[in-house]
Structure formats: C-alpha cells, structure tokens
Amino acid sequence: MQDGRPSRRWRSNPAWWVCGATGIDQKVAFGRGGGFNTSAFFDRLLLRRGATTSTVMSAEPVFVSGRKSAARGRRLACGLCCERLEGRIALAGLVDMAASTQPAGDVAAEVMTQEGRFGDLTYVVTSGTVTISGFYAGATKVRIPSTIDRLPVTAIGAWAFFGHRGIEAVVMPDSVRMIGDNAFLECSALREMRLPRQLVSIGSDAFRSCESLVSISLPQRMTSIGRGAFAGCHSLTEVKLPRGITFLDVGVFYGCTGLLRIRYPSRFSGIGDYAFYGCSRITTLPVPATVTSLGSHAFAECIGLRHVSIPGTVQTIGDGLFRGCTGLTTAILGTGVRSISDSMFSGCSNLQSVAIPRTVTSIGPIAFYACAGLTQMTIPDGVTSIGLGSFLDCTALAVIDFQGAPPALEGTLAAPVSTVARFAASNTAWAPYIASTFGGVETRAVSVPQAPTGVTVGSNRRWVALQWIAPQVDGGAPITDYIIQVSANGSATWKTVNDGVGTATSATVRRPAVGRSSVFRVAAVNAFGAGAFSIASVPKTPPR
Prior knowledge:
There is one protein chain. By secondary structure, this protein is mostly beta strands. Strands 5, 6, 7, 9, 10, 12, 14 and 15 form an 8-stranded mixed β-sheet that branches. The chain contains 3 helices and 39 strands.
C-alpha cells in the first residue's frame, strides 16, 4: 500500500524449494505484493520458535514481496522458525493454502487468498474477486469501491464493520452480491444504507443493533435474509420484502420497536420463530393469505396488537405465538388451524374473545394463562385434549361451553372455581363427569333454545319486516343469534336470508329476495346450536 493506493499483485504458483537452513524440501509461493500486516507474521514466528522439524514442515508457505527478496525467500522458505529470517525481508503476508503431499516438480493448481489494504478498508482477494474484510478509520461516511486493483468487489465479509459506532452512511457499488454475517453489527449511528441492485443475500445479524437505521430498500434480486439480520433496529419503520424472499428466518425483525408496516411478496409462505418479537408498534397482524406457517413466539410481546385474524391458509403455529400481547382484545383463528399451541395467548391480559374453528383438535398447556379479560370460551366439538393449566389465572372466566364430548385433560381444567363448564344434555358421554373431574369447576347440562313465539310479518313492495318474541327457555345458555330462513313461492327449499341479527328480535329483508308469496321461519341460537323454528307467512297481496 502506497499513498492509500493498493499495490499491484502478481498471482503466483506454489513451488518446491530446498530450505537453506535444514536442507528439507518446503513449499513456498513467490510473487509481488504489499500492504500486508507484517506484525501478524512475526507474532506467528515467535510462537513457532522451538517447534520440531515436522511441525516446521507443516507450516503455511510464505508469500515473499519483491523480486529482490525472492532469492533469499527460496533459501529460507521454511523459516517460520528460522533464526536467520530477518525483519528486513519484505513479507507481504501469508498465503492460505492446503498442505500438499505431492512430490517436487508436481505443481497443483490451488486457490490462493491474498490480503491487502485500500484506504481505510482492508480486503481479501479470492479467486479473482474482492471481499471487504475490515475498516480502520473514524470516518462517518463510507464509500466502497467497485474494483480494487482491477478486481471486482463482490462481498462485504463477516464482522467487516462490527462495532464502528461512528459510521452514519454506507454506499456500496452494484457489484456487491453478498453481505456477510455480523457485517454491520452494532453500527449504532448508521442511518443511511444504499444496498446494491445485484445483492443476493444478507447474512445473520448483519445489521443487528443498528439503532439509527430509519429505512432500507431491499433489492428485488435478493433470495436470502439471515437470522436476526435487522434485530434491534429500533428506528426502522417500514420494510418491503423483495419477491425472492418467501420465508422470514428466525428473529429477522426481533425487537424492532419502531416497525409499523411490512409488505410481502405474492408468494410469501412462512414467518419464522421470534421474527417480530417485541415489535411493539404493530397494531394489526401482518400475515398475508399465502402464509402456511407461523413460528414460535413470532409476534410475542407485540403489545400494540389489537385484533388478529389468522388466514385459513395457516396450518402450523408455533408455541407462544401471541404471548405477552397485552393490548390484544380479539382473535379469530382460520379453518386451517389444527392446534392452539402451548402458551399461544399466555399473558394476553386484555383478550376478551377468541373464535376457535371446528378444525382445532387440541389446546396446549397454559394456552390462555393469565388472560384476565376472558369471560366466556366456546370449545368446539373437534377438541379432544386440553393441556395443563390452559385456563389458569383467567380470573374473569365465567363460562366454558363444550360443544362436543369431554376432552382428555392434562391434570384438571385449572379454571377459577366460579367458572361453569356447560355441555349438551343430549351428549351422554358427559354422564360420568362431575365437578371434581374439572378441579372444582361446576358442570352443567344445557340444551338448545326453544322456538321463538309471536312471529309477525309486515311487508310493502320493497321490504318484509319481521318481529318475534324471544324463547322463554334458552336451554341453559344465553341466546347469541337468530336464524331467519325463507321458502319462496311455496318451494320446499329453505334459504337463510339474515346476516348477523344478533340478539335483536326483529329484522328487515328486501322483498325481491323472497318473492311475492313466501313463508318465513325463525330459530334462536345458543352456544350449543339452533333450536326449533317458528313459522309465519308473507301476505300474498302487499299493500301499495
């Protein structure tokens, strides 16, 4: 290195030479070079003093700088422990080369690695390409060259800029295709990062704890983002994933407390463990309808989440998915979900309702632990097992409705003693179950509601208005909805025409949907199903 410019390098072939000190054959590489850290060589020299002849012969070959040094280099080729090796020999560094057992005169083609310095950057040359390996200055802006000594810069090596807390901006050339593991780890002042268009991969923890990084544009050619690549980037607010990224690895955005939005490509399929752990400003679940798996604790401690709806495409859910999401109030699980995982909603203290699909067959241990806002829970008839402590410390839980047969319990139900476990009276499998089975929780047989009474129908040319009286007997469980069906013009086919009546005892239906002469029927619904229907007819001649 002279005047901040890289020295020219001649790539050299290894050859066998006779050591002038020992008379033993030794492999050495010759050529031109410069800019290497010679102190590293002499440190190794001192460590090798006193080594046996066999140890000396297994040492790395020496890369000798300058033609004038070549003759001496030939004579002292194995001199890593040779007393006559003088400091004035211009050593350019060490060549990483596999030990060879080939006889003299048989030279193999081997890949050589050279080290060098360009300005404040250090680099390594391998197979005709340059990897930036380090940085030794206090500059706030770094511009990486596209070539060094006419060789393309294609990578930022592992740990290259680790801990340089003064760097504020980095500009990379489009020739860079890879950023290594921990490359910019803890560059806490880094705000601007221009990534090259040819970039293919970002290594694990590459930008971890870059606390000032506000935005980053990921090139469309990218196919890989390593574990924890942007973890702890507190200032990052929005990320758009390129089309080549189909899966988020472990902890990619772990602890990104400022992250608000993330945009996915069309073929995105999965979110890894801890991917968004602690992203406290996310308010809605960022899961597209193409996702099939959600990793363990992927959204844990996302305290800003309010409502979550898991798409029906999701089939696999890891443990603790929403653990500690204290702002979460409602959750809807898609029909692809087969299991509520261990501690899935543990610590969601404001959770008020969870819609569990009939496809779910098991509820894991402490799944709803400390969900103090839950007052009612409906367990679908497909659930066959409930894990230990699933409802532990759900202090407001008043009712659990079991729509199917008694599930297998790990231990007891572990719900508050004031909780009532309700089941269908028609299900004989519940006969042997008593309060002690559920750890003191009361069990109560219930049925579907009776039919509504006093159904009346009024109509005009546009609307049909219905009213009714709620059933006197709700079956032991509160009425949650009403079903309104119509048979148009004397047909034997019944069609449901209401949409979310709820607990109201009246509804209005557009007349074109029911025809001029129709019959209506109304049934009440509770957690265990719909009761009997009450029937009323529409007047055949509507008033003008």
